[in-house]
Design brief:
This protein is an alpha/beta fold and 288 residues long. The protein is 42% helix and 14% strand. Helix 2 packs parallel to helix 10.
Length: 288
């Protein structure tokens, strides 16, 4: 199927790119292994993101004149309030990423609402913002999630993988819809670099040069297809020096391409919403 959801980009652009950072810090571990709180080395592996990675990434973004979207769990906001406030001070978008990076696959509706509300409260309390964007932890959305998000005033979600361009997603409640900005695993740094013994044991840590080439290849191909390139990085992963340098090269390439509109996720979502696009309905498969 050829997507026809968002083919008209602003002005002279024919494609878009957005650079996103999931500021998981310790929450990515503690959500499923709370006992790891006593593992000092593991906790420092995660805290590297807000303490060292984010300052380095902010310098890189400023160097290229790019505003990014930071998906922040509420727990991270409470643990590192000054770091999260610095993101706002630099003009970047703050978006919602759960409270303690809670997986939604096993959550019931009441639990999911609690995660949403706690995250909203934390981000408003710490950063003074009410986010318009959401990304499910581990990109695991429920079929009820779109309505719960729209009900709370969210403009967009970025958790699904069924397109190369943003589209309007039906929530299942009348004419209500949500902008969906698709992602995929090949544009996530976790699969390339993340290794934590006995927790996220992948057995491989890629050379940043390989990752850089893969991402540049995807950027070129998505741009040729007039799509939307969405790169997801984690400060505790891609904030490391050689990885940050590889990421910087990808950002530089996107900025240098005159076809590509480099924008925050909110800007892309607002542009999508401003167009007269058909709304897409996703139905849950039935298994006999």
């Amino acid at each position: 199927m050829t997507p026809d959801y968002c083919t008209q980009w602003p002005a002279s652009f024919t494609a878009a790119a957005s650079f996103c950072f999931d500021v998981d810090a310790e929450s990515a571990v503690l959500s499923f292994a709370p006992e790891a709180a006593s593992r000092m080395s593991v906790m420092t592996h995660q805290s590297y993101g807000p303490l060292v990675g984010i300052p380095r990434l902010l310098r890189i973004l400023e160097q290229h004149g790019v505003l990014a979207t930071f998906f922040v769990p509420g727990y991270t906001a409470h643990r590192y309030p000054d770091v999260v406030r610095s993101l706002v001070e630099h003009g970047h978008e703050i978006a919602h990423h759960g409270y303690l990076h809670e997986p939604l696959g096993s959550a019931d509706e009441a639990q999911e609402i609690t995660y949403l509300e706690r995250g909203l409260e934390a981000l408003e309390e710490v950063a003074g913002v009410r986010p318009v964007g959401y990304r499910a932890p581990m990109w695991e959305l429920n079929y009820r999630s779109p309505h719960l998000l729209a009900e709370r005033g969210f403009l967009y979600d970025s958790s699904l993988m069924d397109g190369d361009s943003p589209y309007l997603l039906a929530t299942g409640q009348g004419d209500e819809s949500l902008v969906e900005i698709p992602i995929h695993w090949a544009l996530d740094d976790w699969e390339q670099y993340c290794y934590i013994p006995a927790l996220f044991e992948t057995g491989v840590i890629e050379n940043p040069a390989k990752t850089r080439e893969m991402w540049l290849s995807e950027l070129r191909a998505v741009s040729d297809e007039q799509g939307c390139f969405v790169l997801t990085a984690h400060p505790f992963v891609s904030g490391r020096p050689s990885r940050a340098r590889a990421l910087s090269d990808v950002i530089e390439a996107a900025v240098a391409d005159p076809r590509v509109w480099v924008a925050t996720m909110a800007q892309i979502a607002e542009h999508t919403r401003s167009q007269s696009l058909r709304v897409r309905t996703l139905s849950q498969p039935q298994v006999e």
